[in-house]
Design goal:
The complex is a heterodimer of chains A (about 325) and B (about 150). Chain A is about 30% helix and about 15% strand. Chain A has 2 domains: about 170 residues, no CATH class; about 140 residues, no CATH class. In chain A, a hairpin with a 2-residue loop joins strand 7 and strand 8. Chain A has 12 helices and 9 strands. In chain A, the strands form 2 sheets. In chain A, strands 1, 2, 3, 4, 5 and 9 form a 6-stranded mixed sheet that branches. Chain B contains 4 helices and 4 strands; from the N terminus they run E-H-E-H-E-H-E-H. Chain B has a 4-stranded parallel sheet, sandwiched between helices. In chain B, helix 3 links the parallel strand 3 and strand 4. In chain B, helix 1 crosses helix 4. Classes of the chains: A alpha/beta (about 325), B alpha/beta (about 150). Chains A and B meet through helix 6, helix 7, helix 9, helix 11 and helix 12 of A and helix 2, helix 3 and strand 4 of B.
Chain lengths: ~325, ~150
């Protein structure tokens, strides 16, 4: 982390970049938040540890409109989102100085809490430079240890790889965290009976409080005017136009990002209700991979997206029933 | 007074493209071919005009089946519309199947303006299928656990 801060200071001082987009420490040991730093002194608050799960590429849409370059810290999976945003002409590559930061899996505080760890005072072992496989957590009830892998976000268990797809320089080492298959959960649901499927999704989606966090954090959801924004009340963007959008919100949103979703997993990470929203996006990714060939959104900046493309030999829609 | 159990009358929505399938339906009518009255046809300029939201909305409003008809691939009035529609519908139907709307309730059929017979056959077989599947889940209840 110190190397990262030193480099950021250097670039700020020699005028290469006008600001740094990174994370600053929150009020608790496990909630760093995205932040801009405009001077070398302010970088004292800069942090980069296992809890910095936030994908900063979406912030670059606004940062691209600012004067001067912005130094942005991107994790390997965030670089896919950045590539996708370049493809959609939402960010300006010239306005970004990308530092590819290492990643050894990001942590989910809920997973730590679910293991009975309460009253957390400090956490050791979440540093990126730390090679430890365990988190030492100081709580008001004494010290607890949790295996790093048991506290990781779901998306890190099915990591796409630790290679930065786009960067100006790389700082910090990464560690492979993949220990599961990306589509296992989707396949499991596909095997259920229709009634079970409906019950499963009804149970999950009924938890939704329509806070719009998934939409607001999603790098693919960057339309200036969203279909879910009410055109009647400009100030109250959460007000729905009608109940249809209220009920079908997740399905519509998943379809809007189909073929553009890089599976960064931010939607599930930010969901305050713990809804596994990535299951919708992954279903589309799985279908696209099976029917139209392997496609990873954000792998490059110039390929055609599957839903804006076609071939004469595409499968007929009846294939859905035949696949069983 | 006893409560009569209502006979199942399916609600079926058919999106037909203006240039081929709607004309095919017309031909079926003028050829005196019959197809069930449960099918409600909605005319669209092109199969590509069918926004996936239309189909979701149909199911949300209580449709038991949705069928989309368009020109045969290669014959689209706008050259390529139905190729895009084909990909879109494949993914949408797969997603609907994933959330519990059986695949039999959704169908895409390519019907040209000359295929009145195919139109009536398609509608007859589709309606038969919906009768065998019975009432659909209420997609409108997706977010309210009973």
């Amino acid at each position: 982390m110190q190397e990262l801060i030193n480099r950021a200071k250097e670039l700020l001082e020699n005028g290469t970049v006008a600001r740094v987009l990174g994370w600053k420490a929150g009020d608790l040991p496990y909630n760093p938040e995205p932040a801009y730093f405009e001077s070398a002194e302010s970088l004292k608050d800069f942090v980069y540890n296992g809890f910095c799960g936030a994908n900063l590429s979406k912030y670059m849409i606004e940062a691209s409109k600012l004067e001067g370059k912005t130094l942005v810290c991107l994790k390997p999976c965030d670089t896919y989102s950045f590539n996708q945003l370049i493809k959609e002409h939402r960010v300006d590559r010239e306005k970004a100085y990308i530092i590819g930061v290492g990643c050894k899996g990001k942590l989910d505080i809920e997973k730590i809490r679910n293991q009975g760890v309460k009253g957390i005072e400090s956490i050791q072992g979440a540093e990126i430079t730390d090679a430890a496989d365990e988190l030492k957590i100081q709580t008001i009830y004494g010290e607890k240890t949790v295996a790093y892998a048991d506290a990781m976000l779901e998306r890190c268990h099915v990591c796409k790889g630790k290679e930065h797809k786009i960067f100006d320089e790389e700082i910090g080492e990464s560690k492979e965290t993949k220990d599961g298959e990306r589509f296992d959960e989707v396949s499991r649901i596909e095997k259920m009976s229709p009634a079970e499927k409906f019950a499963f999704f009804q149970k999950e989606l009924s938890k939704c409080i329509r806070c719009n966090a998934c939409r607001n954090v999603c790098p693919a959801c960057s339309c200036r005017k969203c279909v879910f924004d009410s055109n009647k009340f400009d100030s109250s963007q959460k007000a729905n136009v009608d109940s249809f959008e209220e009920k079908m919100f997740h399905i519509i949103r998943a379809f809007h990002v189909a073929g553009r979703c890089t599976d960064c997993g931010e939607c599930s990470r930010v969901c305050p209700q713990g809804i596994p929203l990535h299951l919708f996006n992954r279903k589309f990714i799985k279908d696209i991979d099976e029917l139209y060939g392997e496609y990873q959104a954000g792998d490059d900046t110039d390929s055609k997206a599957p839903l804006t493309n076609y071939t004469f030999e595409d499968a007929e829609p009846s294939i859905v029933g035949k696949r069983g | 007074m006893s409560i009569e159990k209502k006979e199942f009358k399916p609600k079926i929505v058919a999106f037909c493209c203006n240039w081929c399938s709607y004309a095919g339906a017309d031909l079926a009518g003028s050829s005196r071919l019959s197809y069930p009255a449960d099918v409600k046809i909605i005319r669209v300029p092109c199969s590509c005009r069918v926004n996936p939201m239309f189909i979701l909305r149909a199911f949300e409003k209580g449709a038991d089946g949705v069928i989309m008809c368009g020109c045969h691939p290669g014959d689209c009035h706008y050259s390529t519309g139905n190729y895009y529609a084909r990909r879109r519908m494949t993914l949408l139907f797969s997603m609907l199947d994933y959330i519990g709307v059986e695949n039999g309730r959704t169908r895409v059929e390519w019907v040209s303006a000359a295929e009145g017979v195919k139109f009536s056959d398609t509608m007859n077989s589709f309606v038969e299928k919906i009768y065998s599947l019975g009432e659909n889940v209420r997609l409108g209840d997706l977010r309210c656990r009973s």
